[in-house]
Design goal:
This is Chaperone protein HtpG. GO terms for molecular function: ATP binding; ATP hydrolysis activity; ATP-dependent protein folding chaperone; unfolded protein binding. Belongs to the heat shock protein 90 family. InterPro entries: HATPase_C_sf, Heat_shock_protein_90_CS, HSP90_C, Hsp90_fam, Hsp90_N, Ribosomal_Su5_D2-typ_SF. This protein has about 600 residues and is an alpha+beta fold. The protein folds into four domains: about 5-210, Heat Shock Protein 90, CATH 3.30.565.10; about 215-345, Ribosomal Protein S5, domain 2 (2-Layer Sandwich), CATH 3.30.230.80; about 385-470, Rossmann fold; about 485-605, Heat shock protein 90, C-terminal domain (Four Helix Bundle (Hemerythrin (Met), subunit A), Up-down Bundle), CATH 1.20.120. It is built from 18 helices and 22 strands. The chain has a nine-stranded mixed beta sheet with strand order 1-6-5-4-7-3-2-8-9, covered by helices on one side. A five-stranded mixed beta sheet has the order 10-11-14-12-13, sandwiched between helices. A three-stranded parallel beta sheet has the order 18-17-19. The longest helix is centred in the middle third of the chain and has 24 residues, at about 325-345. The termini are far apart.
């Protein structure tokens, strides 16, 4: 018997809101309708498993999606639980009454009841974003049930009539609207299905081909899987990518449900902040690749999949809602990652060290941004020196204790950011028997500051930040061969020859083997400028300040005596030559100054 009626909506004008604004992206309609079809199939399987459905399931339980461009129809079919006319009224006509919610409540004590995807009862209405008219042709699994047909044109009016559908299940027929032609293109539908339905737990067929993997490896036990399974799945997620370094299989059922696999890709020496590399699923339905609330920011460098039914979604399942579970999941993932790194470090230190160049940016960023991660990572975060040896922080403390403890009893850790450019300073340090660390990644300017805050009685100094004897001041002092008068005179000669107020000249009692002139930028200024380059908060103003340098004239170098003994007209020329040599050693000499240096060099050679 035919029946007409009005869809029950308790809030005035909510239907246009659902139809037009609930889903920001119109392509979501296909995800919702296919998910509903998967739900119906899963429900039937559950009922069969617990003996409440006695009939044959049949071999073909696929969800089928088809498109008829000429007829302007998209059809989503399943052979699931189906509906009676009364159920259509209950689940379709009463918006926001979720059949999945009721089903889970009814069968909550049965196995796998929580695998039902549906959550809000609104997904079906996303169909009206692309369709003028939507039809439901359905037949319930219940014995003796009559098939029913429901039609709605997007208004609040519907019509239910008997149907001649012979087989159990449901067909959703969308009569595509004029402004939604793109969804009549098979290639467009395939793209949407691949994006959202790639891992749905029931086979989804489109144009005669199954487009999904119903049993992705994150749903399996790690004991069932091989390394090949993990790398193969990684290639499935990220075709043409380099193989991952290693991975973590997440699996927890208390106090929340969470499964997934996180892969560690090779991370270069820069910030490769490749967002959207971790995919979030809820019961194998793709939700989003914006996971910043679920995953700590530093873990955004990882790749992989997280699947949790306990992550709270808004009603369109398109973004997350703030919730205590999100914070718990965030903390859990951080702990699992730290534990995995620690495990690899302890079990295979050599293998871990071999991967360090690929993961050090990630580990350092985690230590900087997450206190709990730092507490764990301090035991497996490594420092590398110029000889290629690796140390934990505690190991390095012990390594330099004897030789690099200054007179104030603080340890001084020397480091280089550019081994080639800072070679002369490195050589001077090594000549004293000092060790030099390699800290040359973009994050290291921030990492260095953090280490100084965390480590007691430890200072880090770039190897070219001052003369070596000032970088690590010892009790013993070097004598200077110059008198106070000569020191004053020499300072005046260099200041006049350099003629630059940003160059602060001092005469120092250095080793005769050191360079005659050493130019350094004060550690504080240089560090602030390094941080400014990488967006170091309030340090941006430092990037606009003029560079200032310390010019240390080596009072014990033989060339200094030559300057003092030279004729007055030659003193400044030789001083300028020594200064330019210091500039040249640091690649700071160019343009007219470089040309003048070359000419002056020729003149000095000719005089010799």
């Amino acid at each position: 018997m035919a029946e007409k009626g009005t869809i029950s909506i308790h809030t005035e004008n909510i239907f246009p809101i659902i139809k037009k604004f609930l889903y920001s992206d119109h392509e979501i309609f296909l995800r919702e309708l296919v998910s509903n079809a998967v739900d119906a199939t899963q429900k039937l399987k559950r009922l069969s498993a617990i003996g409440e459905y006695k009939g044959e399931l049949g071999e073909d339980l696929k969800v089928k999606v088809s498109v008829d461009k000429e007829a302007r129809k998209i059809i989503i079919s399943d052979r699931g639980i189906g509906m009676t006319a009364e159920e259509i009224k209950k689940y379709i006509n009463q918006i926001a009454f979720s059949g999945a919610t009721e089903f889970v409540e009814k069968y909550k004590d049965k196995p796998d009841a929580n695998q039902i995807i549906g959550q809000f009862g609104l997904g079906f209405y996303s169909a009206f974003m692309v369709a003028d008219t939507v039809e439901i042709n359905t037949k319930s699994f219940q014995e003796g049930a009559e098939a029913a047909r429901w039609v709605c044109d997007g208004s609040t009016e519907f019509e239910i009539t008997p149907s001649d559908k012979a087989e159990r299940g449901t067909d959703i027929i969308l009569n595509v609207a004029a402004d939604s032609d793109e969804f009549l293109e098979p290639a467009r539908l395939r793209t949407i299905l691949t994006k959202y339905c790639k891992f749905l737990p029931v086979e989804v067929e489109f144009e005669g081909e199954v487009i999904n993997n119903p049993n992705p490896i994150w749903t399996k036990s790690p004991s069932e899987l091989t390394d090949e399974d993990y790398t193969k799945f990684y290639n499935e997620l990220y075709p043409f990518s380099e193989p991952p370094l290693f991975w973590i299989h997440l699996n927890v059922d208390y106090p929340f449900n969470l499964t997934g696999i996180l892969y560690f890709p090779k991370i270069k020496n820069e910030f490769e902040f490749t967002k959207n590399k971790i995919q979030l699923y809820s019961k194998q339905v793709f939700i989003t690749d914006e996971v910043k609330d679920v995953v700590p920011e530093f873990l955004m460098l990882l790749h992989g999949v997280i699947d949790s039914p306990d992550i709270p979604l808004n009603v369109s399942r398109s973004f997350l809602q703030a919730d205590s579970n999100v914070k718990k999941i965030n903390t859990y993932i951080t702990k699992k990652v730290a534990d995995k790194l620690n495990e690899i470090f302890k079990k295979d230190r050599a293998g871990y060290e071999a991967k360090w160049n690929d993961i050090n940016v990630f580990v350092k960023y985690g230590m900087l941004s997450d206190e709990k991660f730092y507490d764990k990572a301090k035991d497996f975060g490594l420092l590398q020196n110029l000889e290629g040896k690796y140390f934990t922080m505690e190991e390095y403390k012990a390594f330099v204790q004897a030789n690099q403890t200054a007179k104030n009893e603080n340890q001084v850790w020397l480091y280089t950011t550019d081994q080639e450019k800072q070679h002369a300073f490195i050589e001077a340090a090594q000549n004293r028997g000092y060790d030099v660390l390699k800290l040359d990644s973009v994050i290291d300017s921030h990492f260095i500051g953090m280490l100084e805050q965390k480590l007691e009685k430890t200072t880090l100094k770039r190897v070219d930040a001052d003369t070596i004897d000032k970088l690590i001041e010892k009790e013993e002092t070097k004598d200077m061969v110059l008198s106070e008068d000569e020191k004053t005179k020499l300072k005046e000669i260099f200041e006049k020859a350099i003629n630059n107020t940003n160059m602060m000249v001092s005469v120092e009692p250095l080793s005769p083997e050191d360079q005659p002139v050493i130019i350094t930028m004060p550690e504080f200024m240089r560090r602030m400028k390094d941080m400014a380059k990488t967006g170091g908060g309030g340090m941006m103003f430092m990037g606009n300040m003029p560079d200032s340098y310390n010019v240390s004239v080596n009072g014990n170098h033989p060339i200094i005596q030559r300057i003092l003994k030279a004729r007055d007209e030659s003193k400044e020329k030789i001083a300028r030559q020594a200064f330019d040599l210091a500039l040249l050693s640091q690649n700071m000499l160019s343009g007219a100054a470089l040309t003048a240096f070359v000419k002056r060099s020729v003149e000095l050679i000719e005089k010799e």
